[in-house]
Structures are given as structure tokens and as C-alpha cells.
Write a structure and sequence with these properties.
The chain has 214 residues and is of the alpha/beta class. It is built from four helices and nine strands. It has a nine-stranded mixed beta sheet with strand order 3-1-2-4-5-6-7-8-9. α3 (188-197) links the parallel β8 and β9 (202-203). The longest helix is centred in the C-terminal third of the chain and has 10 residues, at 188-197.
């Protein structure tokens, strides 16, 4: 059984594949925060701005097996007559609480390239085509290699220096959006300055928020 908060077709807004047409599948649940405001202050990840509780979002629901969910997600990809490879991004919450090799295989059978956006604290199943790890606070990483490391900046317990020697193809810093917190500091200038002085890192902006794309 897979529990999906929401699923939708849009453009990837962040990181190395920003601007790419994608089907997003947001799983319910996370291992670093309950999703309830009353627990935010004590959570390992305090700045999350995503609703991942329940299955009541757009195209959300409970899916009895991988084939059912894969068919559901395939239906969200428009028919472009093969002009582009179908692309699905599994996110959350924390997608690796639910994503398994069976579902990845089912998406591959429908011709999809499979991407995952994870906090990196759980092992990943085989078959993922694009792995993005976004470390949170002082958590320990189970995933130390992949395609993209995308670090929200600044995090006092997760300085970039902790991650520079990991085996990723791309290193991104993304300015912390303080909206869920009481600290309303604009972190863009600090992030730009760090990337300029440490050119291993590239700037990632949340273009979906800038443009108003869902």
C-alpha cells in the first residue's frame, strides 16, 4: 500500500533539472517531522513548508500496489508523441519511507525516468535514475553519493563544509525560506556570497515560487 498526499504535472523548480516538465508524486509522512505545527520546534527539520499529512491532496490517495500507482502517475503525463522522456519525481515528506524497487520498476515499464528528492537518512532502492539528497540539520546521512546534493542554507548544524567531500555530481546551496519560522531574515545574500567564495557550490533558487508555478 502506498500513501500519496498529492500528484501533479508541473515544471521542476529547483536544482540541476529546474525547468524540466515532471510528474510529481508527493508521499505522505516524514521521518524528520510529524508535519504538525505543535511539533515543529522539536523536529530535526524545522523549516519545511510542505503539507505531507494524509492523502487528501490533488490526485492523492491510497494505492494498493505499484502497478496501480504507476498507472495513476502515467495518466498525468501528457501525450507528446515521444517528444520527451516521461519524468517522475518522487518527493515528500520523505519518499524513501515508501518508494521501493517494485514501484521504480513499474515506472520504468511505462517509459519513465525516475528521480527522487530525499533527506538522505534512509537507504535508497535500486534503479533510481536521478538522486537528489537534501541534508537536514545534524542528521546522519545513509546516502553519501548521488547526482545532486542540494543544501538549504544556512543551517547551523549543517554547514556546507560537512558535505564537500561527498560523491555527488552537483552541489547546490538553496537560500532558506524562513516563512514557516519566526525568523524572517532574507538569506539570499549570504547564499550568493558563499557560492562566490566557494565555487564548488552553485546557487539554486525556488523558481516555482518566483514564477508562481504550482
Amino acid at each position: 500500500m502506498y500513501h500519496v498526499k498529492e500528484a501533479f504535472y508541473s515544471l521542476q523548480g529547483e536544482g540541476a533539472r529546474a525547468g524540466r516538465a515532471s510528474v510529481f508524486c508527493r508521499f505522505s509522512g516524514c521521518n524528520l517531522w510529524s508535519g504538525r505545527e505543535m511539533d515543529r520546534a522539536s523536529a530535526a527539520c524545522r523549516f519545511c513548508d510542505t503539507d505531507f499529512i494524509g492523502t487528501d491532496g490533488q490526485n492523492g490517495g491510497r494505492f494498493v500496489d505499484a502497478d496501480a500507482l504507476a498507472t495513476h502517475l502515467k495518466a498525468l503525463w501528457p501525450n507528446h508523441d515521444g517528444a520527451a522522456t516521461p519524468y517522475v519525481v518522487f518527493t515528500g515528506g520523505e519518499p524513501l519511507l515508501q518508494l521501493d524497487e517494485t514501484l521504480i520498476d513499474a515506472m520504468h515499464s511505462h517509459g519513465f525516468e525516475v528521480a527522487v528528492e530525499t533527506n538522505g537518512t534512509l537507504p535508497a532502492p535500486a534503479g533510481i535514475d536521478w538522486l537528489c539528497v537534501s541534508p537536514k540539520a545534524a542528521t546522519s546521512l545513509a546516502l553519501t553519493a548521488g547526482d545532486e546534493l542540494k543544501l538549504v542554507y544556512p543551517q547551523a548544524e549543517a554547514p556546507p563544509e560537512r558535505f564537500t567531500d561527498l560523491d555527488f555530481r552537483h552541489f547546490f546551496l538553496q537560500p532558506l525560506d524562513s516563512a514557516p519560522l519566526t525568523d524572517n531574515t532574507n538569506h539570499l545574500d549570504k547564499t550568493v556570497a558563499y557560492c562566490l567564495s566557494h565555487p564548488q557550490w552553485r546557487l539554486s533558487l525556488q523558481t516555482h515560487k518566483i514564477t508562481g508555478i504550482d
